[in-house]
TrEMBL record:
This is F-box domain-containing protein. The lineage of its organism: Eukaryota, Fungi, Dikarya, Basidiomycota, Agaricomycotina. It comes from the Eukaryota. It comes from Rickenella mellea.
Length: 260
């Protein structure tokens, strides 16, 4: 009998330990469902050969919790390497707030044992608090982090948090057409040096201004700053002119990469 390596399903997944141990890819979709995060976590912990995990949540609500996880059940943080972790969260107001605090944030804590090479998080019509765990810390860490945020969010605060927290990520990619880049762009105290992040990319960030791009470049690329990025990329940010980018390129050279 051939091994079962890929599972795609809605709402439910097998509880069979032997079958779970065979899976290398799990793709689960939840729509208008009631979820028990603890039970879900126990399923993932049994998938010993997992390499790719994709989770999609839309308008979900919490279900009564199972018996709390014992300390011995929970793998150590960042202890299990996988290839990809993709989480998509969407919802209609006012549901998303409840879904974030009662489902997504506890799920972040349950998945903190994973160490993905690539993390993709897509937020559609839900608050950017989805990015944070119940302890208030930013959730993802992996070699490459991609954040696709449809609604308004403070890009500066998110980026500063990533620089402070991530010890593994080497690149961070943002797609956030409604993000705001206002104060505290010039506040030196929010910009920690990162032990790992060397590339930051902004794509379709339509609200960023030329003045904010200049401030970002000075903070992230300048040898006078503490961050020390090797590359800052801007792709299809509609309010940034080529003249502005050429002037910045004169100052920072090939550290600045762009596509209009």
């Amino acid at each position: 009998m051939p091994l079962l390596s890929y599972f795609h399903g809605f709402r439910h997944i097998t509880q069979n330990r032997q079958l779970l141990a065979q899976l290398t890819c799990i793709d689960l979709w939840f729509f208008n469902d009631r979820l028990d995060v603890v039970s879900m976590a126990r399923v993932f912990y049994k998938a010993r050969n997992l390499q790719d995990l994709k989770l999609t949540f839309c308008n979900c609500k919490p279900w009564r919790a199972s018996t709390p996880l014992a300390v011995a059940e929970i793998p150590p943080p960042l202890s299990v390497k996988i290839n990809t972790l993709k989480i998509t969260v969407s919802g209609d107001n006012p549901g998303p707030k409840s879904m974030v605090y009662n489902i997504i944030q506890p799920l972040h804590n349950a998945l903190s044992y994973l160490l993905p090479s690539q993390i993709d998080i897509c937020l559609d019509h839900c608050p950017f608090e989805t990015l944070y765990g119940t302890d208030g810390e930013f959730f993802p860490d992996g070699d490459s982090i991609r954040l696709d945020i449809a609604g308004p969010c403070s890009m500066i605060n998110i980026l500063a948090t990533l620089l402070r927290r991530c010890v593994i990520a080497s690149s961070v990619h943002f797609k956030a057409p409604k993000a705001f880049f206002l104060n505290p762009l010039c506040d030196r105290d929010i910009w920690p040096s990162s032990p790992s992040i060397r590339r930051v990319s902004f794509r379709n960030c339509d609200t960023i201004t030329e003045g904010e791009v200049k401030a970002l470049a000075n903070r992230l690329l300048s040898c006078r700053g503490r961050v020390g990025l090797q590359f800052l990329e801007l792709h299809h940010c509609k309010d940034i002119s080529e003249e502005c980018l050429l002037n910045l390129h004169d100052e920072f050279g090939d550290k600045l990469v762009w596509k209009l």
